[in-house]
Amino acid sequence: MPLLITRWDKDNITIETPILITFVGYLVLMMGIGFWAYRATDTVDNYIWGGRKMGPAVTALSVGASDMSGWYC
Fold first, then answer.
1. Cα-flanking dihedrals φ and ψ of residue 42, to 5°?
2. Quick count: other Cβ atoms within 10 Å of Cβ 4?
3. Cα–Cα distance, 63 to 54 (Å, whole number)
4. What pLDDT, on a 0 to 100 scale, did the predictor assign at position 49?
5. CB atoms within 10 A of CB 31
């Protein structure tokens, strides 16, 4: 994890507190969102189809992103 290391001594590696707090906070936030999404979906179909609640704009953006990602080789 070279991004968290701020000082490299021969015998000591230190991590700054604000960076560590931000990293841990991000992990907790992502786990919270994942748990909420897990509880919100009942079946595999509900997960795959997004509960059929996606509007046309979100669907169009998703299709466009999928299409554009196929062009990069």
1. -100, -40
2. 13
3. 12
4. 75
5. 10
